[in-house]
Amino acid sequence: MKLTRLMSLASAVAALALAAGAACAQQVTGTLGSPGATTTIDGRQLPAPDPSFGGTITNDALSSKPWWAPRIVPPKGAPNILLVITDDAGFGVPSTFGGVIPTPTMDRIAANGLRYNNVHSTALCSPTRAALITGRNHHSVGFGVISEQSTGFPGYNSIITRDKATIGRILLENGYSTSWFGKDHNTPSFAASQAGPFDQWPTGMGFEYFYGFVGGDANQWQPNLFRNTTQIYPFEGKPGWNLVTGMADDAIDYLTRLNQTVPDKPFFVMYAPGATHAPHHPTKEWVDKISDMHLFDQGWNKLREQIFANQKKLGVIPQDTQLEPWPTEVIKNWDDLKADEKKLFIRQADIYAAYAAYSDHEIGRVVQAIDDMGKLDNTLVIYINGDNGTSAEGGPLGTPNEVAFFNGVNMMPVDVQMKWYDTWGTEQTYNHMSAGWSWAFDTPFTWFKQNASRLGGIGQNMAVSWPARITDKGGLREQFMHVIDVVPTLLEVTGIPAPDMVDGIKQAPIEGTSFAYTFDKENAKAPTRHKTQYFEMFGQWALYNDGWLLSTKVNRAPWEAFGAANPDPLNNQVLQLYDLSKDFSQSQDIAAQNADKVKEMKDLFLAEAKKYQVFPMDASVAARIVAPRPNITAGRTEFTYTHPMTGLPQGDSPFLLNSSYSIAADINVPEGGAEGMILTSGGRFAGYGFYLLKGKPVFLWNLVDLKRVKWQGSDALTPGKHLVEFDFQYDGLGVGTLAFNNMSGVGGSGTGTLKVDGKVVDTQKMERTLPMILQWDEAFDVGSDTLTGVNDADYTPPFALTAKLNKLTIKVDRPTLSEDDIKKLEDTQAVAVDGSAIHHMQPAPQ
């Protein structure tokens, strides 16, 4: 019997070794077969195959030998990992790299580790994040643009295919606890509802725990918040609660539970705050702190000069770096502004800076919690400042409502904006600052988020600490890097290989290059190992190759989203050439003197673009937002609801823009009357609501918080059964125009009619409708209203319907194009939606 057991044990060990792929790579602790045994795996096949049973089985338990499969653990010494990435922050934002905004947490990580000044993004948020978690280029994983602009091509469909497992999945299968906090902008907008599928949610991509929001931005006061895949609603926060603190609290709670339950199990935390993406929502405490510092009274020209001087003093840029002249053709000099403009713009910058400082502080609480657990020494902290350059989507004037920008209103006059001056950054605004500050915050580079051909769009920085490994405290690393390099770095330092197979699917190669070699002091000046990298976003592109950078001249500012698109973005370009080994800030164009190099670099870009699914290249921006995509409403024109329902995201709900539609509610009003929300979509910053107000039927359109168009019955509904209807006849051409990459015919006029039991009670014409989106982070709700309401003057959410809803029916009649329409569009590039929309909207009462 003893010999039999030994042979069984030997057989089990051999089976484990076979499953691992190589016995020499296996690290076993304890006695195999015992409940406390652990083992590493080779990791080439995930999940690892179950080992063969290593005990013995006879007819009775007393003479049988139990056997437990060992628990899978990472290789010995594998570090905990805290991966932090902030949002919409350029090179000159943090104090760590010369900025005036205090970021003591990033300072702490840098002082305890290394600073990196040559890190690159994709120029846009979710593409960068897709690259970050997969180690592949953004087009390779379907994120050539954000999901809300996805199109039916492999490089642009916002689907991370199964042959490209995330770092979360790899580490999870190798014994890590994995979690994701904050922003998830990598779930396709058409798969974000409670109907799923959930395979592209964080929990479906290898992150065991998720706490945050799904989408590009979020109201930090009233976020559309999830734990795993369950919406947290009704949302109950303390007075003054803010998600920036809320997610830090949740992360600390999660890490504490792990530490108390399995203190020896390594963790991987993806920490992605919404800051500093619009809306900029800091607490009053932080606004007061920053305002009292008077950082921005000097204006953006002098701020840029101050940041530039700080950067040279800190040594985070070369001493011979040059600063280009202020772009007066794009943004006015500060001294040319009027007094009220300066006042507003200083307020905008104070709020942005407070948001950045507040976020850094809360990140610091998470770092300190890890330190308090005694785990910081063996924790690799990677703190990436920005997923792209600073955003300029507020335009030269900024805006109290970012949703207005996405609907073509991007030059809201200062006197209009001043009505929100005292509430800027509170729950009453969805605010964004002037592009003048964005230009300064991207110092020493130029241009912004979205501009993939300029370092102002793709140039980031980061701080990295790992006390157990990194000894060159405060050192600077200048090697070229890209966010795709993070995954191979994590795999190298954990000793975990990239898998060959995941769930039986052969994996595509990792495309990044590990930068772990830079952790060693002797490699401080080592040549970069990442030699070639392409960039492309909205038809603007660049190629880095061994110090050289070929880039297209910027031909569209980020706030210019509604014009006709470049029809040939590969060739219809002015090409510029830079030698970044001598020109850190990309300021000296030498293309004219190096025609052969320009041709060589373009040919190389073409090869890289073909390799990584960049084609077909598309320069359109707004047109792609309303382009058709496969959501759960695709092909449907009629929708029926018989029960209250909340939380359906915009990307999965009936789309009423640029269409005729009718909404009919069959309800029973109880004795004493009724009120409440029948149907709503969107919220305070753009949306519509169909409700009973003191018994009277109301249909209201909120036009980006500038104007509210309201239809209302004069009489309260009597007790009993009623049919309340709203019918809208649209005058425009619809989204079929988008095949021509222009915006003609959208956002047109229409006539709405409100009826009760077949009788017209109100009718009026809307001269202009919303052309693009409702408020993205608000839901489609039946029977009540989640988060913010579409009209604060009428009700306070949730405003539950007290009548009985028997049946709600929505019918949508989308315009089709006639041959004459098509000919007209082919012959013109007229744009119906632009900043002139402001003249058709008056500020709503505050």
Automatic annotation (TrEMBL):
It holds the Pfam family Sulfatase. Residues 1-25 form the signal peptide. InterPro entries: Alkaline_phosphatase_core_sf, Sulfatase, Sulfatase_CS, Sulfatase_N. The keyword Hydrolase applies. Gene3D superfamilies: 3.30.1120.10, Alkaline Phosphatase, subunit A. Residues 79-496 form the Sulfatase N-terminal domain. The keyword Calcium applies. Keywords: Calcium, Hydrolase, Metal-binding, Signal. GO terms for molecular function: hydrolase activity; metal ion binding. Belongs to the sulfatase family. This is Sulfatase.
